[in-house]
Amino acid sequence: MSFTTDIKRELTKTAPETREARLALLQAVFRTSGVRTADGFAFISENETATAYVIGIAEQCFGVRMTLTEAVRDPKHGRDKLTFSYTGPDAVPRMREILSQDIDTEDCSLAFLKGAFLGGGSCMLPRGENRTGYHLEVVFSERTDAELFTEVLDGSHLLGSLLERGERYVVYCKSREGIGDYLSVLGAEGCLRAFERTVAARDESNNRNRLENCVAGNVDRSVSASARQIRYLEALGRTGALATLPEPLRLTAEARIQNPTLTYSELAKLLGISKSCLQHRLKKIMSYQGERP
Hints:
The chain is an alpha+beta fold. 58% of the residues lie in helices and 16% in strands.
């Protein structure tokens, strides 16, 4: 089950209390997944739970039940696209009533945000091999609908950016803080906790990777320095210059040649000197050609 499905399932556990808020929710669903038909209007959904929920909200508002008129298999996503319709002599007035509902109260704004996600929303988390990052979006067919959604988001102090994608308009948020705020405002507390666990696990993994990369980088630099030192020290040995060094420097050079994989700390401990003393000796040895370790 996807995180999007989890969110939609949790959002359907509660319904708006007032008729105005229920109309606001239906309006958002219509603006994201609704279509006008010859004798009324319809909603299209791929989520059976959301479909049943919206049908129930419509029945609460109008006292009639919308009917399932089509189910088409989407081979790309392996899901059915469900079309449920409302027809009859009062269908057009009902649709106008839905679309004319003002989104001017907190209850209506919350219901509108919930309906928009149920109708056209999705949320992706960076799990496993998925490295696309955090991404929440709601898709609209009309720019004016997308702009209205961004206004409602702004009124609720939530983040959202608008872009055109083909013939669609997408309001999205890639900020994990913004996504967390959206889930919190919608009251999806269970999904919010799951989201926060994902964020914490991801942060821990990223911190661990950064530490490992840092250690690996230090090891690489240490190995490179050691190889350069040994090449030079062996050259000194071949020319006989190594034997002419003062004893402390000669012993240090010999220890470096004999222990090429030891770190500065390990080599210093072997020689019974401090790390800074070791580095000073090596620099002094390498200075014969102006090269530094």
